[in-house]
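Hi everyone,

Forwarding the result from last night's run.
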Amino acid sequence: MIVMRTIEYIEKNPDVDYVVTQFTVPRRSTYYENEWKSITPWTKNVESSVYYKYLDSQEMRNMNLWKNVYILDQYLRNIPHYFWRLSESTEDSSTNDSIFKKVVPWSGMKTLYDLIGRPDTHPNHYVTGHPNELGHNLIFQHLQGVVPNISYHSS
């Protein structure tokens, strides 16, 4: 949904100077039922159970991630942007790299693990699987180094 929401926002607010996008973990997906809804393997509903039992695969997850990266990168071709993403260890089990990953300049984008380490190796950067204050400070320091000063400093 990040791609859809980013494009919708820019279409309504075209004077965007810079875009920073954090892509979610590949296992998160969406479906439509009166509105767009997000699902994960641990979402407790019938849609999630059916999707993850019968349709999901690591290859599908990776293809969707890199297709979304490709689409947003193409949409932002005239707007400076920076992408980074969440990651998960199950990505290593994929047996097929998506064509979309091969054609985007972001195939080596930074991941959360690159920025703050893994929960098992850097537990002082996390609380219940999410970055804590120290983890967020590390993310902030990284983004300060890549986002132009003009984008976050007002005169």
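Helices lie at 2-12, 46-55, 58-75, 99-103, 112-116, 133-146, 149-152.

Cheers,
N.
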